[in-house]
Amino acid sequence: MDEYLIQKQEILNKIKEYESIIIVRHIRPDGDCMGASLGLREILRDSFPQKRILSIGQMKSSYLEFLGSEDEDVSEDVYKESLVIVVDTATSDRIDNPKYQLGKEIIKIDHHIPVEDYGNINYVRVDLPATSAIITDFYDTFKDELVLSSKASRYLYTGIVTDTGRFRYRGVSGHLMHLTSLLLNTNFDIEEVYSNLYMRSPQELKLLAYVYEHFKVTENGVAYFLMSNRIQKKFNVTNEEAAALVNSLEGIRGSLIWIFFIQNNIDKTWRVRLRSRYAKVNEIANKYRGGGHLQASGATVMNKKEIKSLLKDADLYLKTFKENNEGVF
């Protein structure tokens, strides 16, 4: 028996109960939160055409514009009569739409490490590597009652493929591939998705070459790069485009942790993207105003002094990790 079946049934019952449903997601939207939000919206619209189903966000990501738009915001009165579903967001302070709190009831659907239960129903699946996979699994459970269109599949596939690094990271399983096959069987244009996600501008490629020439490695193998405002301006790339290059450092032999520091061009703080292979970086992120997955987390540091402090913490952690796993790495 599916151990999560009771929660999934509770969610479906709530969806059936409400005539108005609003889906929200996290700030700084990535492929998974947009894929999950828009994918769930399409499944519910096709399955319950008489209901009002909206996906509402504020912050945008230019690299995801190809997916299409979310919905226009509505009045507070609408929220107060609606079921609000928050996707791909571990903590309430990262929810993009503050009006979510007005919802008559709130459902949290997420795949991050459980930190905060802010919903009336908190459905968290750390066994699945993307919230878009959780939505696909939800459809699969109730496929006799729900409708999966090629449009919904395109959204959900985008979420899965981005959060798994094109099926290269931990969490990829036979079950995930089964869910992905359901999406592919609806015959959306997979080449169009990949073209929009992974084609790079000449400026980005020149910046990538600069990163390869100038990245640094700490004593114990933490690879890192400081993406200052000056560098972003020099190569004419957005903060978002710069941040997307974090995994350019993933293949360095001996570097189980790699970090990008991206300077905000408004308040001069630094967005931190931490990635790792085998090692856990979420606890480092938690110390610096962030969090996330064991091996993919984000944080914020205020200045270069905190950058040095975070790198020191990461280097010490990696030293200990290697000592405890001597002969493996």
3D structure, described in words:
α4 packs across α5 and α4 (131-141) packs across α6 (174-184). The radius of gyration is 20 Å and the shape is globular. The longest helix has 21 residues, at 304-324. It has helices spanning 5-17, 31-47, 76-80, 131-141, 150-163, 174-184, 190-198, 202-214, 229-234, 239-243, 282-287, 304-324; strands at residues 20-24, 52-55, 83-87, 105-110, 121-124, 216-217, 222-227, 257-263, 270-276, 291-292, 296-301. It has 329 residues and is α/β, with parallel strands linked by helices.
Layout: helices, strands, pairs:
Layout lengths: L4 H13 L2 E5 L6 H17 L4 E4 L20 H5 L2 E5 L17 E6 L10 E4 L6 H11 L8 H14 L10 H11 L5 H9 L3 H13 L1 E2 L4 E6 L1 H6 L4 H5 L13 E7 L6 E7 L5 H6 L3 E2 L3 E6 L2 H21 L5
Parallel strand pairs: 1-2, 1-3, 3-4, 4-5, 7-8
Antiparallel strand pairs: 6-7, 8-9, 9-11, 10-11
Helix pairs in contact: 2-4, 2-5, 4-5, 4-6, 5-6
- Category from helices, strands and their pairing: alpha/beta
Count of DSSP helices? 12
Characterize the largest beta sheet: strand count, sense, and whether it forms a barrel: 6 strands, mixed
Helix content: 25-40%
Q: Round the Cα radius of gyration to an integer and report it.
A: 20 Å
Point out poorly predicted stretches: none
For the termini, the CA-CA separation is 39 Å
Strand sequence of the main sheet, in spatial order? 6-7-8-9-11-10
Which percent range describes the beta-strand content?
15-25%
* Topology as a string of helices (H) and strands (E): HEHEHEEEHHHHHEEHHEEHEEH
Number of strands: 11
Residue-averaged pLDDT, rounded? 94
Overall body shape: globular
